[in-house]
Specification:
Elements: H1 2-14, E1 16-21, E2 24-29, H2 40-51, E3 59-64, H3 75-78, H4 83-101, E4 107-111, E5 114-116, H5 118-125, E6 128-131, E7 136-138, H6 152-160, H7 162-171, E8 175-176, H8 177-183, E9 188-189, H9 195-207, H10 211-226, H11 229-245, H12 247-257
Length: 267
C-alpha cells in the first residue's frame, strides 16, 4: 500500500516541474508530448501545489514546458464520464482554479503556443498574463459538442466580454497573441521566447510589495469592482485604513518621504 501511494505521488509530481528562485515559485506544466493537455492527475497536482505555498514565497509563475502553455482538457478522459461524473469533474476543476485565483500571493501566467480550452481557463485564473507571439487563444468546445467546465464562462467574459467569448465558442475563432494582448487575454506581449523571463521579472517585483497590499489587490479589489458603488466605496475605505495602519506601510511611506525610494516616472 505504501509503495502504491509513493508511486502515485511520484507520478503526480512528474506532471509538474516546480522550482524556487528567491521569493518566486515556478510551476511548469510538464506534459510536453501532449501539448500540456490537462488530465485529472495534473489538475490535482496543481491543486496540491497551490494548497502548500511556502511562507517564504511572494509570487508564483505558472508556465508550460515545451512549445505550448496548454492545449486544454485531455479529451481521452472526458469520454469516460456520465452526467453525474461530469458535474463532479467540472466542480473539481473549479476548486483547483479557485486555489489559483484566490492564492495568497500574485500568480503570473507565461503563455506561448496553444492556450486553448481548459488551458485558457487556467490562464484566466492567474492575476497577470504575459504572452509571446507564438501564443494563440481558442475555445474549441463548441465544435466538439461540449461546454467550458473550468470556470471559463465566469472568468473569461470579465476579461474580454461576453460577445467576444460567444463568437469564439460559436465559430471556433482563434485569436493571435497580438490580438490577445489588445483584447484583454493578456496584459503583456513580449518577443518570442521571452514570456517566462518577463513573468519572472514581474513576479520578483510584485513579491517585493507589502504583503497586505498584495492581499488587498488580489482579494478585495475584485469584490469592490463588482459591488454596489456605495458598498464598494465603504470596502475601499476599510481596506485603505487597514493597509495604511500596517507597520510595513508606515516604513515604506517614511522611506519615500526621506527620499530613499524613487519617484514614479514614465517607463
Amino acid at each position: 500500500m505504501g509503495n502504491a501511494a509513493t508511486t502515485a505521488a511520484a507520478d503526480q509530481s512528474a506532471l509538474l516541474k516546480v522550482e524556487t528562485q528567491g521569493a518566486v515559485l515556478t510551476i511548469g506544466l510538464n506534459r510536453p508530448a501532449k501539448r500540456n493537455a490537462l488530465n485529472d492527475g495534473i489538475i490535482l497536482a496543481i491543486g496540491d501545489c497551490f494548497s502548500h505555498i511556502p511562507d517564504s514565497i511572494g509570487a508564483v509563475v505558472i508556465h508550460g514546458i515545451g512549445d505550448h502553455f496548454s492545449s486544454g482538457l485531455d479529451l481521452s478522459e472526458l469520454t469516460e464520464h456520465d452526467a453525474t461524473e461530469g458535474l463532479r469533474h467540472s466542480q473539481m476543476w473549479h476548486r483547483v482554479f479557485d486555489k489559483v485565483q484566490y492564492c495568497r500571493v500574485p500568480v503570473i501566467a507565461a503563455l506561448k503556443g496553444a492556450v486553448i480550452g481548459g488551458g485558457l481557463e487556467l490562464a484566466c485564473a492567474a492575476h497577470i498574463r504575459v504572452t509571446e507571439p507564438s501564443a494563440y487563444f481558442a475555445l474549441p468546445e463548441g465544435q466538439r459538442g461540449i461546454f467550458v467546465g473550468g470556470g471559463g464562462s465566469v472568468r473569461l467574459p470579465r476579461l474580454i466580454g461576453v460577445a467576444r467569448m460567444t463568437d469564439m465558442m460559436l465559430t471556433g475563432r482563434v485569436y493571435s497573441a497580438t490580438e490577445g494582448a489588445s483584447y484583454g487575454f493578456a496584459q503583456y506581449l513580449t518577443e518570442e521566447g521571452a514570456a517566462l523571463d518577463k513573468a519572472m521579472e514581474l513576479a520578483a517585483k510584485v513579491a517585493s510589495n507589502a504583503p497586505l497590499t498584495n492581499f488587498a489587490v488580489l482579494q478585495a479589489l475584485p469584490l469592490i469592482a463588482e459591488a454596489n458603488p456605495q458598498t464598494g466605496l465603504l470596502m475601499e475605505s476599510l481596506m485603505a485604513t487597514v493597509a495604511q495602519s500596517d507597520k510595513e506601510a508606515k516604513l515604506r511611506i517614511r522611506a519615500f518621504l526621506d527620499r530613499k525610494t524613487a519617484k514614479v516616472k514614465p517607463g
